[in-house]
């Protein structure tokens, strides 16, 4: 059974956040809120966590996993960014964007796109997610919590707990965080290519 954490959306309880972070370090797969919708997350480099996300969402090996980072300094450890791209991403973070960029050697090969050697990265604008990332001290490997055959992600923590009780280890409930996923911008070719229009404004990338 998944542990259930009722966390205040504006003033997350440090004890609860610490417990979730400890669970992640121990190999847990969690469902947690972001500034666009709920996501599944585990420790970077956790093959078990990666396999479980693929199983829950029925993903193939071409799926771009996302490294959810606390800040720009952390993000920069995992992707290669030139000056123009740096400025464009810096101006848009934190926010509801996922950026696809060439991966550095810090990113496990199993997380990279098999042909492009790229990875998705984002810095969320969500108090609870930021508190968890600060406590964890490293990115969360993540994927949108969108179940096979469904058009929209689940938005309620209690519903996620009810439906995924035996396939995730913990659920953070901080209230409804919406159903619109991030806007995805691919910078791996040097120019901005909008792959998916979502919660983030695309104007600056067009």
Description:
The chain has 206 residues and is an alpha/beta fold. Helices cover 25% and strands 21% of the residues. The chain contains six helices and ten strands. The chain has helices spanning 14-25, 47-57, 72-75, 83-90, 127-136, 157-163; strands spanning 3-6, 30-32, 39-43, 66-68, 97-102, 118-122, 140-144, 170-173, 183-186, 193-196. Strands 1-8-2-3-7-4-6-5-9-10 form a ten-stranded mixed beta sheet, with helices on both faces. Strand 9 (183-186) and strand 10 form a beta hairpin. Helix 1 packs across helix 5. The longest helix is centred in the N-terminal third of the chain and has 12 residues, at 14-25. The N and C termini lie far apart (45 Å). The mean pLDDT is 92. This is L-threonylcarbamoyladenylate synthase. GO terms for molecular function: double-stranded RNA binding; L-threonylcarbamoyladenylate synthase. Keywords: Nucleotidyltransferase, Transferase. Its EC number is 2.7.7.87. It comes from Streptomyces rochei (Streptomyces parvullus).
Largest sheet at a glance? 10 strands, mixed
Distance between the termini: 45 Å
- The proportion of residues forming helix, as a percent range, comes to 25-40%
Strand proportion, as a percent range, falls in 15-25%
| Structural category | alpha/beta
Q: Helix and strand succession?
A: EHEEHEHHEEHEHEEE
Low-confidence stretches: none
Subunit organisation of the chains: single chain
| Total DSSP helices | 6
DSSP strand count: 10
Spatial sequence of strands, sheet with the most strands: 1-8-2-3-7-4-6-5-9-10
Mean pLDDT, nearest integer? 92
Q: What does the overall shape look like?
A: globular
């Amino acid at each position: 059974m998944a542990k259930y954490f009722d966390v205040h959306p504006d003033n997350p309880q440090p004890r609860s956040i610490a417990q979730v972070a400890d669970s992640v370090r121990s190999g847990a797969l969690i469902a947690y809120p972001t500034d666009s919708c709920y996501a599944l997350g585990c420790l970077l480099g956790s093959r078990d966590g990666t396999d479980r996300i693929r199983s829950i969402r029925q993903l193939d090996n071409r799926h771009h996993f996302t490294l959810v980072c606390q800040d720009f300094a952390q993000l920069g450890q995992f992707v290669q960014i030139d000056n123009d791209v740096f400025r464009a991403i810096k101006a848009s973070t934190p926010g509801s964007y996922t950026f696809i960029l060439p991966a550095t050697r810090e990113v496990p090969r199993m997380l990279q796109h098999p042909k492009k050697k790229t990875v998705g990265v984002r810095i969320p604008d969500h108090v609870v997610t930021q508190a968890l990332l600060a406590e964890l001290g490293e990115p969360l490997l993540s994927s949108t919590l969108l179940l096979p055959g469904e058009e929209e992600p689940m938005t309620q923590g209690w519903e996620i707990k009810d439906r995924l009780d035996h396939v995730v280890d913990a659920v953070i409930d901080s209230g409804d965080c919406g159903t619109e996923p991030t806007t995805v911008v691919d910078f791996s070719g040097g120019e901005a290519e909008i792959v998916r229009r979502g919660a983030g404004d695309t104007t600056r990338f067009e």
